[in-house]
Amino acid sequence: MARDARQSTADSATRPAAGPVPLRRNRDFMVLWSSQVVSTVGSRVTSIAFPLLVLAVTHSPAKAGVVGFAQTLPFLLLYLPAGAFIDRWDRKRTMLACDAGRAVALGSIAITVALGWLSMAQVIVAALIEGSLFVLFDLAEGAALPQLVTEEQVPAAIAQNQAKSQGADVVGQPLGGVLFSAAWLLPFLVDAVTYLVSFVALLFIRRPLQHPRARQPIRLKTEIAEGLLWVWRQPFLRAAVGVIGGINLVFNALTLVLIVRARELGASPALIGVMFAFVGVGGLLGSFVAPWVRRSFSARRVVVTICWLWVAQIGILALLPNALSLGVVSGVRSFAAPAFNVVVTSHVYQVTPNRLLGRVRSAARLVTWGSIPLGALAGGFLAAASGAQATLLILTGIMCSVAAAATLARGMRHLPTPSRAGRHPGNQPAGEDRDTCRPPA
C-alpha cells in the first residue's frame, strides 16, 4: 500500500490535476507565462533596434538584411537536430542556459556601443548567438506546455501565449524606437536585463517539464526521421508547413521593408516604433477572438481566408503615404495572425505524443521558420536594389502564390480529427508513451 501511495504521488506530480485549475490560478503556468512576457518585450525592443543600429552605422538596407539573416539562420540550421536533443535534455535547465547566454550576447553589444568599439562582425555574431539560443528555448518551452495545463486548456494557453507576443509588440517595439533615439546601447541593455529576469523566474517553476525517461543512447538520424515522418503522415500538417513557410518568408522580408519605407517617408526611429505598435495592438485584439474562431470555423476556412486577406493588405501597403498609415494597415493584418496560429498549433498538440513534441515542432519549423532568414536577406537586398515601394509589390505577388497554394492543397481539405476518447499525450502518467490519435478522416 505504501508503495502504491508513493507511485500515485509520483504520477500526480508529472501531470496536471484531474480537476482543471483556471490558467490564472495555475501557478507554474503563470510563472512561465509572466517571465516570457518580460522576455518577449525585450526581444521586441531589439527587433527594432537591430535594423535601426545597422542602418544608422552603415546606411545600408542590404547589411541590415545580413544581420537579420544571421539572427534567423539558426531557424534553418538548428531546428531539426535540436528537436531530438530537446526531447532528451532537461527542459528547464536548457531554458535557463539559453536565457543566460542571450543576456551575455545582448549585453556585449551595449558594452561595446558604450565604449565605441562596436563592429559589424560583433553585431552579426551576437545576433547569431541570440538566434541559436532562441531555437533551443523555443523548442523546450513549447514541448513543456502540455505538462503545465490540462488537455482542454491547451488552446486557451496557446491563445494566452499569442496575447503575450502581441502585447509585447504593443509595448516593446515603440519602446525600442524610443530607447534607440535616447541612446543606441539602451535597447540592448534592456533586452539583456529581461533575459536575466526570465532566468530568475524559471527557477521558481516546481512541476517537472517532461515525463521521466530512461537514459538511452542518442540515435540522431533515427530520431530526426521519426519527427519528419510524423509531420509527413499528417496531411494537414504537411500542407500547413509549406504554406506557413511561404508566409514567414514574406512577413520577415516585410518587417525590414516597412522600416526602410518609413525612413523613405521621413519617419524618425521613435515614430517607426509607434508604427509597429499598431501591429501589436492588432495582434493583441486578435488573440482574444482566436479561441472563438477556432471553435466556430473549419481549419481550412480559417487558413485560406486569412491568406487571401494578407494578399490584399500587403498590396495596400505599397500605396500608403506615411508611417502611421503603414502601421494601421499592418495592425489590421496582424489581427488575423493569432487565429491562424491557434488553429494550426492546437492541431499539432492534439495529434502529437509528448515524447515527440520537440522533434515534430523542430521538423515543422525547419520549413516554417527556416524561410525566415531567407526573407530577411531578400527583403534587405530587394529594398536596396529596387526601393521599398517596389519590393512591397513583389511581396504581394509572392503572397498571392502562397494563398493560391493554401486554397488548392489537398491536405487542407482533410483535417485529421484526434480521438476525444483518449487522453492528450501530454497528460499521460509517467511510463506511458503511446501514440493515441485517430487516423486521418
Largest sheet: none
Mean pLDDT: 82
Q: Given the structure, what is the number of helices?
A: 17
Helix vs. strand class: mainly alpha
Distance between the termini: 45 Å
Shape designation: globular
Please provide the ordered H/E string of secondary-structure elements. Answer: HHHHHHHHHHHHHHHHH
- Strand element count: 0
Low-confidence stretches: 1-18, 416-441
Cα gyration radius (Å):
21 Å
Beta-strand residue percentage = under 5%
Share of residues in helices? over 70%
Give the secondary structure arrangement, pairings included.
Elements: H1 2-13, H2 27-58, H3 61-77, H4 79-86, H5 91-115, H6 120-148, H7 154-182, H8 186-202, H9 220-232, H10 235-264, H11 269-296, H12 299-317, H13 323-335, H14 337-351, H15 357-368, H16 371-386, H17 388-408
Helix pairs in contact: 2-3, 2-6, 2-7, 2-8, 3-6, 3-16, 4-6, 4-9, 4-15, 5-6, 5-8, 6-15, 7-11, 7-14, 9-15, 10-15, 10-16, 10-17, 11-13, 11-14, 12-13, 12-14, 12-17, 16-17
